[in-house]
Amino acid sequence: xxxxxxxxxxxxxxxxxxxxxxxxxxxxxxxxxxxxxxxxxxxxxxxxxxxxxxxxxxxxxxxxxxxxxxxxxxxxxxxxxxxxxxxxxxxxxxxxxxxxxxxxxxxxxxxxxxxxxxxxxxxxxxxxxxxxxxxxxxxxxxxxxxxxxxxxxxxxxxxxxxxxxxxxxxxxxxxxxxxxxxxxxxxxxxxxxxxxxxxxxxxxxxxxxxxxxxxxxxxxxxxxxxxxxxxxxxxxxxxxxxxxxxxxxxxxxxxxxxxxxxxxxxxxxxxxxxxxxxxxxxxxxxxxxxxxxxxxxxxxxxxxxxxxxxxxxxxxxxxxxxxxxxxxxxxxxxxxxxxxxxxxxxxxxxxxxxxxxxxxxxxxxxxxxxxxxxxxxxxxxxxxxxxxxxxxxxxxxxxxxxxxxxxxxxxxxxxxxxxxxxxxxxxxxxxxxxxxxxxxxxxxxxxxxxxxxxxxxxxxxxxxxxxxxxxxxxx
Amino acid sequence: xxxxxxxxxxxxxxxxxxxxxxxxxxxxxxxxxxxxxxxxxxxxxxxxxxxxxxxxxxxxxxxxxxxxxxxxxxxxxxxxxxxxxxxxxxxxxxxxxxxxxxxxxxxxxxxxxxxxxxxxxxxxxxxxxxxxxxxxxxxxxxxxxxxxxxxxxxxxxxxxxxxxxxxxxxxxxxxxxxxxxxxxxxxxxxxxxxxxxxxxxxxxxxxxxxxxxxxxxxxxxxxxxxxxxxxxxxxxxxxxxxxxxxxxxxxxxxxxxxxxxxxxxxxxxxxxxxxxxxxxxxxxxxxxxxxxxxxxxxxxxxxxxxxxxxxxxxxxxxxxxxxxxxxxxxxxxxxxxxxxxxxxxxxxxxxxxxxxxxxxxxxxxxxxxxxxxxxxxxxxxxxxxxxxxxxxxxxxxxxxxxxxxxxxxxxxxxxxxxxxxxxxxxxxxxxxxxxxxxxxxxxxxxxxxxxxxxxxxxxxxxxxxxxxxxxxxxx
Lengths: 475, 475
Description:
Chain A is an alpha/beta fold. In chain A, 40% of the residues lie in helices and 15% in strands. In chain A, helix 4 (86-93) links the parallel strand 3 and strand 4 (108-116). In chain A, helix 7 packs antiparallel against helix 8 (192-211). Chains A, B: It comes from Agarivorans albus MKT 106.
């Protein structure tokens, strides 16, 4: 018997088995609010639906080799989960003047059936075409920021919040709910109305941190994106000063009904029924993940906003870092094998700045990425524009010709006048003190581009993202 | 041994056991949109919170006997269920000018702890006071209209909708989604976008039936109150013409992915995960029920609107009619032992019309009530005003002095001018053809009354409702 031949048959049989098994994939897309999740998914779906005929995806091997036969939208697997509103996004882009797709506020999903010609000779003999069912799942990155709560008691969480208030800008915003908390006799029997009042004031504070200070690191994350839980007591809690949260109750019997007792109960309920539930219902099922990061807006907003973004993004990455805590292993078996970091809105800086943008993103995610790679997850980092809103151009600066971008600024929607500008140099490293003093960078939002419904959306490197995320599935 | 004494001790022990067991009660409040659920619960909570000191509850025996010691709001049992917004309602009533509390759109709950002096000598010796934990649960009556779906197949539901379209006013509104459905090749592979488009158009039609025609009998009920299910495929279905829904599929294999196949799947999913879930999570736990009915608005809107309201209310009562179908017995064990029918907004007609209003309500609910009573459920029927917006007065009609009402009409909010009017006679029977021809009735909405935060809200017969619903619990 010829062993090498036997082994070769076995390899082919393995390949075949792999192909038949590899028919489904759940690709998750996340990022903080404003990172561009909706635009990314809208463009990704658009490229896949129209990509077989459009020749806009040269970096995707399957399309380059003309083995991609096309895609169709089919019924999503979970009937009670919101559908990702692809059509709504396309309608917005094709309105006059075009507008960006509306942001999403919770989990949504969409399923595409991708058809292709397989590479394997054996498979091709058996079957002319193969199919990949691709589920794309969108969820707010903010929800992953709640992960650390799972390992904290209520008192520990209060300590954490107290230390975060050392930031002077937060101190001022926090004064209203803090004053309400100071007056509280935390061991007395709780008044539901007062609990709800303080919780509402704390939620207002979180909204202000987000909107006025450009902060992303909001805890608990569901307070600003409550969905179906709006008005429920599980969201009617708030932090106490650490000294109070740690003060023992005088009356053990009354404790359960006291302010402190209720705050502890609700904190535990939130961990168990809100945070864990997301991991168990959704996160556990993801095969691959894209983390989108908008590095440009925080460059505009200043040092603190940038640091907060960096902190939040790295906090998000802890969820992919199964090894670090036994807690996560208990919650879900590691499954994700590839993770893409993408700096979005690359069309909002000139093309010669793209490599700086990639390097900046690499530094932003460096810490989290190291842990993720240690888990055996393959990662890649790139800069992309999901829907390209500008053209490359040239501008004159001090008599020199420099790379610039050209498009309609969001502020010129009425006049529809084109502007050519050079937003400045993107730092290739985490910006140092002198960067913020010079303020050499000004990133301006552009209107969505005018596009035709018959052509795929213009983009930068969506094809490179597809190649990294899906490329190996089309053997 | 003295048997009669033994028996008397046994009775006392039974009484005692009953008292200790009777510590919790879940009182459900429902009604169609606009029936006045929020005003009823706001006033009920207000009367109980302030009732021990205010002397506004003479028809409640406990209060009359000065055995009611007071009530406090405490933590509701389900932390993930929205809290009934009592404080928001009171703030609206105490704003200037006062406004009615905002309507609710789903399930919400609130818990009160009622403290009283028990009647039983034995109990009084053991303990000076006793406590009843009262949960008040608010839910839309529309959700109960989906009950019949549980016994229908998709094709049977389509037949039912088709027959309901014989109403000529509906036919016109229905033309848009019907045209979209006509063009569908229901055995071809479904296009998700088109499914969603038609479902949205069907949902628009349901909203129009509700708003333009004043119809309440909307199926499926969740389409107009989607809550967390907004945008999910479980709400992306619609009825087909009965002949189409009954046409066998040509290709059994393709059926699952065809329009007809998906419509059938989603209809079944809706029954299983939306309709049944409400019964299992909430309905099964109710001890007593109030069904609120606004008989006055449909008297304004005309014959069809009145008939639709009557149909819808009786349809709601099917959910309390356990014996009728074995399905309901399988879904939940019968538990409700008292059911109150209340005609709301009695302050919007003159006081001499209240007895007519009760009689009219009795006729409206006659059919459903008969079945409910057959189940052994005790019922009562009354006319009430949760928050009294008018005063009784006298007016002159053709030289005669008649009973009238006086208050600020909703249309006079700006001028805050008082109006005295006689809205007409409420028919004491289901109105016949000549009633609609004469149009002798005109019911006008009044502004919420100006009230003091230190006094309980003015009302008509909330105390009578309390006596019926809770009275026997305070032994």
